[in-house]
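#structure-requests
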Amino acid sequence: MQAKKQIGMVAVGAVLTGLALVWVGTPHVQKKEELKIGVSLYAEQDTFIDSMVAAMQEQAAAYENETGCMVTLNISRANGSQRIQQEQIEQYLSLGYDAVCVNLVDRTDASGVVDLTQRKQVPLVFFNREPVREDILRGDQVYYVGTDARETARKQGEAVLQCYANAKEQMDKNGDGILQYVMLEGEMGHQDTILRSEYVLQTIEQEGVELQKLDTETADWIRSRADAVMEQWITQMGNEIELVLCNNDDMALGAADALQRADMQVAIFGIDGTPNGLDALQKKKLWATVDCNAKAQGEAIFDIACALGTGAELPEKWILEETRYVRVPVQIRTPKE
């Protein structure tokens, strides 16, 4: 399997020694000498997902330090292949892992993953790419961690409205009372792409601000693709563009790169609150972003997988919706003056 790329089994204590972290996860965990959790990621690289994984590793190190139980996090990347992801999960199960966490390649094809883990009676935590509800309910120990995509979009819309109220002339450059916008969308078919694209527009228009769509294009969450699309739009439309709505921060940064080269000032709005996105925010390259709290999401994923993998009660700090869902709150972030 040449196409498979896998970061081998790593005991986090050996890698992340010396971290002075306080464990705030599940109490009364059954005594275990080792906890093994397999994590399969959908792609080679995703800035936001990588931040979540880093938070999982920190939480694992804290748990190990507190309990003395060695934690192994095996991080694999499926490189966009559902087949490879299936093979990775099968390997975790064959090696007797205590829990499996999956960032799905194809959210519509979750049933096979659920059936695999349930046959082995291994707990499963989906994250970021949400399966349909029917798949979550296929097994007794199947959970999902993420944000409410509608809420992130509404927050982005609210950020646009706040900026428009404070800097109307700067945003509405031609003074026609209409915001001419372009939108950079994430992966086609991804629930966050669909909901973020729909609800941001709905939120803005419900408050009486008129929008005019100039164009929308998919850039698959990737900065370099967004840069290329934005460069083409600049060539085609130039100063007609007043607003750039982006489904994530990496695409917002790509748009900012292209606009900077063209020496154009346009209002750009992102979603995620990645480290690079927040840095660009303070440098006034982005007007606002919605912080989806990758750290809290990563901590929740580990805490729930840990509790399930040790037979402990689920941690009370993570409020479950409909008994199976953890929705981490989001917030608007704007530049600090």
